[in-house]
Design a protein that fits this description.
5 helices, 0% strand
């Protein structure tokens, strides 16, 4: 798993260089994370309305990130299957993006990016 996370983190700047995409991720990733935690809490509390709402919010947040990736010059590596998709999605949301922010990568990428409508950089 360590190699997987290292590979994902190493490839992260390649597909996160557009200022609009970075801003979308800054909002959507925490929203996705809170929605997933809320979904789990709702299931534990047997609040099916809360659980469905959490799933819907997570899907909307993830969809927004996908739209943001469409602005990038380079696309992420395609998913190789359902297990790969779920592993990569949850690792990005809960580990890789927070690590990108805390390591200063997000700030560096934002400063290096051009204007909001730029497709990936200066």
């Amino acid at each position: 798993m360590t190699s997987f996370l290292a590979d994902q983190f190493g490839d992260y700047p390649r597909v996160h260089g557009n200022r609009t995409n970075l801003m979308i991720h800054a909002v959507a990733v925490p929203l996705f994370d809170l929605a997933v935690v809320g979904t789990l809490a709702s299931v534990a509390a047997r609040s099916w309305v809360g659980a469905v709402t959490g799933v819907a919010v997570a899907a909307i947040a993830f969809g927004a990130e996908g739209r943001g990736h469409g602005l990038e010059r380079e696309r992420p590596i395609p998913f190789s299957g359902p297990v790969n998709a779920l592993t990569r999605i949850f690792a990005e949301q809960f580990i890789t993006f927070p690590r990108f922010v805390l390591s200063g990568g997000w700030g560096r990428a934002y400063r290096a990016a051009g204007g909001l409508s730029d497709r990936g950089g200066p």
